[in-house]
Design goal:
With about 140 residues, this protein is mainly alpha-helical. It folds into 2 domains: about 70 residues, no CATH class; about 50 residues, no CATH class. The protein is about 50% helix and about 0% strand. α1 packs across α4 and α4 crosses α5. The longest helix has 20 residues.
Amino acid sequence: MLLKQEYREDLIELLKELPEDILKPSGYTLTTLLADKNMVDQLWSNYQKSVEEYYLTPDEAIREALKDILGLPDPLDQAMPDAEAWHIETTVSLSLRMKAGETGRQALLRLEQLLQSELTNLADHDITVETIEPVKLSR
């Protein structure tokens, strides 16, 4: 596999976004990790392979590289000591059947109103709805 510089740059940006305590069990800080060219190269190779060959997202690939190369557990599998400081961003795909004579914009408004009416229930589970964006219109 030919290593591509853009994957190394992406990897470094993702590493910089990580909370410092995630690296602590490996004995590295962000500064010492980035200074270790051999370790960065190993992470880079693993990261690029995960994206190109296994079609992982960049976030999944960085977690996989940290697990495989540094032996770190996936942050999603760890209990967070300060839960209020952590958020997990997800994408939820909903299929909304349109009513006869309804425009796409009206259907999205109906979905938004339905979700707003359920926000009380969602808030009980610490779930908030940030945005609702249409992806595609299909039959």
